[in-house]
Amino acid sequence: MKKRFLILAVTVFSLTIKGQTTEAENKLRTAVNDTLLGWKKGGLVTLNFSQASFSNWAAGGQNSISLNGLISTFINYKDSVSNWENMLDMGYGILKQGKQGNFIKTDDKIDLSSKYGRNASKTWYYAALLNFKTQMTPGYDYPNDSVKISDFLAPAYILGALGMDYKPNSSLTCFIAPITLKTTIVNNTGLADAGAFGVEPAVYDSSHVLIKHGQGIRNEFGGYVRVIYKTTFFADKSVSLLTKFDLFSNYLHNPQNIDVSWETIIGFKVNKFIAATITTHLLYDDDVGILIDKNKDGITDAIGPRTQVKEVLGIGFSYKF
Questions:
Q1: Rounded to whole angstroms, how far apart are CA atoms 49 and 52?
Q2: Are residues 22 and 69 in the same domain?
Q3: By the 8 A CB rule, do 159 and 111 touch?
Q4: pLDDT in tens, 97-151
C-alpha cells in the first residue's frame, strides 16, 4: 500500500513539474514573439555647434560659427508573413567664416525610404521598395553665392524597385531588384536648361535663341542593389554604426557605368545627451557632370562624372530613442 502511494505521489509531482515547465516555456516563447513581432521604432537626433573667435592672435585665424543637425529615424512592422520597413534621414548644416556676409551650407539632405516584403523562405522576402531623395535649400557655387547650382527638388530622385530581400538577421538586409525605375527631377528652369544632373538640356538655334526648354524629368530603367547594415559595439552600446550601400545600372544607356552611393553614420556616445557623430557619403553618378579643371582664366576645361565625397563631424547634443 505504501509502495503504491509513493509511486502515485511521484507521478503527480512529475506531472506538476512538467506542467509548470511547459507553461513557463510557453510564456517565454510568447514574450520572445511579442518582442520580435509588431511595431518597432527608434532613431537618433544630434545637434552640434562650434564657434571660434580671434583678437590680436599672432598665429592668425578667422572667426567662425557653425551649426549642423542630423535626424535618423525608423519605424518598422513585422508579423509572421510580412515585413515593412520605413527610414528617414535628414541633415542640415551651415557655416559662417571670416568677414563673409552670409552663412554657407555645409550639409543638406532628405532621404526617405519604404520597403515592404512577404515571406518567400526563412531569410528571403518578395519585396518592393520606394525611395525619395532631395535637399531643402538652394546650393551655390561657393564662394560665388550668386550662381545657383542646386535647389529644393533640383535635383530630386524617386526610385521604385521590385525584387528579393535577403534578411539573415536584424542587422543586415540585402535588397536585389532587377526591375527598377529611377526618375530624376530638376524643378528649376535654369538648371534644367543647362542639362544639370543628367536631364536633356535646352535647345537653341544658331543665334543662341531658345527653341525649347530643358527637360525637367529624366527616367531610367535598370537594376538596383541596396545593402544596409546596422550594429552597436561594446557592452554599453556606446558606439553605433549604420551604413547604406546602393548600386544602380541603367539598362538603356551605358549599363556598364554603375551609379554608386555609400552613406555611413557612426555615433559615439559620451553620456545620455552628449555624443559625437561622423557622417560620410561617397557618390558617383555617371550622368552628373562636374568641373574637372580650370585654367588661369577661369574657363572650364572639361566637365564629366567624378567621385564625390562628403564628410561631416559633429560633437554636441545627442538623443537616441
A1: 11
A2: no
A3: no
A4: 877 778 889 899 999 999 999 999 999 999 999 999 999 999 998 878 888 999 9
| Cα–Cα dist 121/79, whole Å | 14
Which amino acid, one-letter code, is at 63?
N
What residues are paired with 318 via a beta bridge? Answer: 46
User: CA 141: distance to chain centroid?
Assistant: 25
Q: Which residue range forms the structural domain that includes residue 63?
A: 37-320
Q: Are 246 and 234 in contact (CB under 8 A)?
A: no
pTM of the model: 0.81
d(CA 226, CA 89): 16
CA distances for 159 relative to 66, 182, 224, 263, 299, angstroms: 33, 4, 9, 17, 36
Give burial (CB, 10 Å; 0-12/13-18/19+) of 10. Answer: exposed
Q: Do 15 and 53 reside in the same domain of the chain?
A: no
Half-sphere exposure of 157 (CA within 13 A, CB side): 20
312 — pLDDT class (breaks 50, 70, 90) = confident
H or E element in which residue 21 lies: helix 2-36
Residue 206, amino acid: S
Residue 125 CB partners (closer than 8 Å, separation 6+): 83, 117, 118, 119, 164, 165, 166, 167
The verdict on 260 and 313 lying in the same domain is yes
Answer yes or no: are the C-beta atoms of 218 and 229 closer than 8 Å: no
CB atoms within 10 A of CB 48: 20
Q: Determine the residue type at 247.
A: L
CATH number (domain holding residue 316): 2.40.230
Q: Report the domain count for the chain.
A: 2
Q: Tell me if 78 sits within 8 A of 100, measured CB to CB.
A: no
- Those residues with Cβ within 8 angstroms of residue 186's Cβ, 6 or more apart along the chain or in another chain: 153, 154, 155, 192, 196, 197, 199, 214, 216, 217, 218
